[in-house]
Amino acid sequence: MSNIKKPTVLIVGAGLGGLLLGALLERAEISYIIFERALVVRPLGSGLIIGPNLMPLFEQLGIMEEFIALGKATTECIISREKGGPLCTVSTLVHKELTGYYNYNIPRALLYDLLLKLVPPHKIHFGERVISIAETEKKVRIHTSKRDIYDQKERTYEGEILVGADGAYSTVRQQLYERLKKEGKLPLTDQEDLPFHSTCLVGQTRPIDMDVFPEFQQPLCPFYNTMAANEPFTWIIGATAQKTITWMVIHNLDSVSSKAAEQERAWNGENSEWGPVAAKAMIEQTRHYPLPIGTKKMTMGDIYDSTPKELISKVMLEEKVFETWYSGRTVLLGDACHKLNPSGAHGAVTSMHDALALANLIYALPSNPTSSDITQAFSEYQTERIPHVMESFENSQLLSKFMNRNITGWVAFFLMKGLPGWVFRITKRKMVQNRPTAGWLQEIDVRGTVAPDVSPSTEKARAVFWKRHQEGGISR
User: Fold this and answer.
1) Distance (Å, rounded) from C-alpha 434 to C-alpha 156?
2) Angle between helices 456-472 and 371-403 (to 10 degrees)
3) Domain ranges of the chain
4) How far apart are CA 5 and CA 20, in angstroms?
5) Taking a C-beta distance cutoff of 8 angstroms, is the pair 354, 333 a contact?
6) What 3-state DSSP class applies to 315?
7) CATH number belonging to domain 9-69+104-191+322-403+432-472
8) pLDDT digits 0-9 by tens, 122-164
9) Which residues of the chain have pLDDT under 50?
10) What CA–CA distance (Å, rounded) separates 105 from 155?
11) What residue intervals traverse the membrane (predicted)?
12) How far is it, in rounded angstroms, from Cα 289 to Cα 226?
């Protein structure tokens, strides 16, 4: 590939999506830099359920075995009421038959570190935030500011592509949308505040004595979703291979709000919903909720008391899919262009699938790509990803309505509970068919009984790889 003039990619945001994109570009020998405004990425959050949809890619990257060793295989979710006992069990054991892979619960921090090792340290600029973006016909330029008392100089970087992977309140998206709005090109829905109708506490305990939780010592262990009897709260717990418990407590709000509305309330002197005080208040409000398992009676309070306080956070659960994902040489991925409720456990997967599709299409760009070449690649990226994102978005919304005891959710629950086995298998089959890979890396043998769907970006990258291989004798 030495005779191929490849673009330089500027990636803003070192979350899971940004890291994976960097790791893939590293393997493709494409120049890139990652910018992360935080000095360090704190290991906040609960566990992530990762399974068949990403395992073939992890195998290509050579991290599958390490991932499996770090994860805890889980094959079912047991849904219960606080005082009414189990309502149903949702099994994912069929995933192993269909794909050859289990689902795994893995602490977010461990998955993050696993991906971080794939990116050379000098290619990630921590503590460097983007303050302005400028674009020309041939280049995109960003100005950054370093969060370092000994080095506060502003810097300028140039590349051919700018990727906004910087989260729900993306600086890249905000600046892109400001420009498009001035030009009269921004849809009205993209000008609205990012809405949320639930908040949550998330955390992970320190290693604890699992003898009191025999259910979590099974090789294939479940995780548990419990709904309060008379209050709008749901709590979810699961085990990890590190003998910790990952947990989440969701508070379903009476009305839709936004970050801007909450900030205005705080400015007007009303109680702020955010920060350590708010998290502590929610802990006290919910610590009496009983755990559905264990050899003795325990509550969420026992879980909170076993969790380092600095690892507990209260967050908004925004839900929105933006219409505009790209313009010119700028493109968005992950939470920057679609924010999913974590009820469906698809947020991290969709972000990483975005990164993969984008990497495939960047790899397939012609030598010295023009602006129109890049725009076409971005268009193909959104066209491929939007159906999968919308399916995950709608599933997550449905699950969040169920946990809020919304009538729509209850109807869906009773339909799901009475679903015939053959229909359940068809549904599961569809869920696990989306198993894309990197087209220029070694192809992975298909496991299980169901072949993955054809990914247009994978096929395009693979065709370009073989063409270059024939022309120049390149290797994977």
Assistant:
1) 39
2) 150
3) 9-69+104-191+322-403+432-472, 195-318
4) 22
5) yes
6) strand
7) 3.50.50.60
8) 999 999 999 999 998 899 999 999 876 566 678 999 999 999 9
9) 1-2, 264-275
10) 40
11) 407-426
12) 9
